[in-house]
Amino acid sequence: MTILTVRTEVALQKGVQQLAEEGTIQLSSRYQTFLRYARFEPSLMMEFFERLLNETLAKEFSGLRVMIDMSWALSIGCDQLLTFEALLNDHMTPWKMTTLCQYPIDRFAARVLEDALRTHPLALIGEHVCPNFYCEPTGFILNNPSADAKVEWMMDTLKQSASMIGKNCKR
Questions:
Q1: Is-contact 34 72, C-beta < 8 A?
Q2: Strand blocks (E) in 11-162
Q3: Could you give phi then psi for residue 4, rounded to 5 degrees?
């Protein structure tokens, strides 16, 4: 099952309506998902996703795919997004859930885009799916790590990145 959170002005394309009627895809507005309590609360959204996943698995789907236009956050402020994205990362694999968060770069401030890159292990840049070595561990986002711990993680990440592209760090 796929849930798409779309802006209300986005029209359904041919074929999507049929999938929605069959129950294979669910289209929801920001008011049915992120803002259903008239405010955004990361823990409530996590409960919503868990409930939706359980309903999806009960219908014998193998998992849940979620595509989200994150522009909904522009109407209320983005101060809780970083916490939500970090919490979500910890749950996606055990939850059998895949998400695609869309942050239009022409609509979001650089600070918000930086936070989005801190919380997404992959980034779709144009037509390129890129491993994101700027993605930080959830504990770094939710807690304030020591500078030593952060530098150690950064150096380990650089070494892993170098080995992935077949190059060694020279001494």
A1: yes
A2: 25-28, 64-69, 97-102, 122-125, 128-131
A3: -115, 125
Residue owning tokens 């008011």: 31
Per the CB < 8 A criterion, the answer to whether 66 and 3 are in contact is: yes
* pLDDT tens digits, one per residue of 130-171: 888 899 998 899 998 999 999 999 999 888 887 777 655 555
The SS3 assignment for 99 reads strand
Which amino acid is present at 121? P
Cα 158 from Cα 83, distance rounded (Å): 25
Tokens of 167: 């190059």
Q: How far apart are CA 126 and CA 123, in angstroms?
A: 9
The pLDDT, as a whole number, for residue 13 is 53
Tabulate helix, strand, coil % of the chain (nearest 5).
45, 15, 40
Query: For residue 78, which of 47, 48, 116 has the smallest C-alpha distance?
Result: 116
Asked if 2 and 24 count as a contact pair (C-beta separation under 8 A), the reply is: yes
Across 9-35, average pLDDT: 68
Tokens 């939500």 belong to 84
